[in-house]
Amino acid sequence: MTAGELTVVGLYTAPSAGEAMVPGAEVVVTKDRGIDGDRYSAGTGHWSDPQWPDQQLTLIDVETADALGIEPALLRRNVVTRGGRLADLIGCDVRIGSAVLRFVRPCDPCGYLETLLDRPGLRAALENRGGVRAAVIAGGTISVGDSLEAMTA
Fold first, then answer.
1. b/e for 91-118, b at 16 or more Cβ within 10 A?
2. Is 96 part of a structural domain of the chain?
3. Which domain holds residue 141?
4. How many CB atoms lie within 10 A of CB 127?
5. 14 phi/psi in degrees, rounded to 5
6. Within a domain: residue 103?
7. Is 153 part of a structural domain of the chain?
8. What CATH code is carried by the domain that includes residue 38?
9. Which of 102, 109, 120, 143 could cross-link 126 (Cys pair, CB 3.0–4.6 Å)?
10. Res. 152 pLDDT band, cuts 50 70 90
11. Per-residue pLDDT tens over the stretch 117-136
12. 36 found inside a domain
């Protein structure tokens, strides 16, 4: 995967679990924490738990949201991309803007999202395409329009 294939088209944060996602033009990420001001960086997310240290931020492709007929922000992922399969980068370090993320594992769908949105069937519809979870290994700034660049494979 090279720069230019995947591009950031949306950035979202929420101050705590269940609150509406707030769009932004850029976010600042901190090593080993996540996005400054987001629920997971603050430890107030629904899945905030020391047993899940690798979910400092989440990513999903806009094509999934489009296929489901849902606004990307409603899927509650932090970074929305266009242009390729994020899951192909699991196990890689990925530069986005001045930050470096390690794509750790799939962001499997959960019943919480389905309940929160009152959308029965959403969990099943997101099976195998719920995005990815990433750890921040080098802090920096991510902006809408940034390309993703795989650094390792």
1. ebbbbbbebbbbbbeebebbeebbeeee
2. no
3. 7-90+108-145
4. 9
5. -140, 135
6. no
7. no
8. 2.40.33.20
9. 109
10. low
11. 667 777 777 778 889 999 99
12. yes
Q: How many residues does the chain have?
A: 153
Summarised one tens digit per residue, pLDDT across range 22-51 is 999 999 999 988 899 887 765 655 454 555
pLDDT band at residue 108 under the 50/70/90 scheme:
confident
Highest mean pLDDT among 9-23, 43-57, 135-149: 135-149
- Chain position carrying tokens 């603050």: 42
- How many domains does the chain fold into? 1
Give the tokens for residue 6: 């995947």
The residues, ordered by sequence, that sit 6+ positions from 7 with a Cβ below 8 Å of its Cβ are 81, 82, 83, 145, 146, 147, 148
- Copy the structure tokens of residue 150: 């795989």
CA separation for the pair 94, 152 (Å, rounded): 8
- Using a 10 angstrom Cβ sphere, with 0-12 exposed, 13-18 middle and 19 or more buried, the burial of residue 4 is exposed
Distance between first and last Cα of the chain: 9
For the chain, what is the radius of gyration of the CA atoms?
Answer: 14
Strands 79-82 vs 57-61: parallel, antiparallel or unpaired: parallel
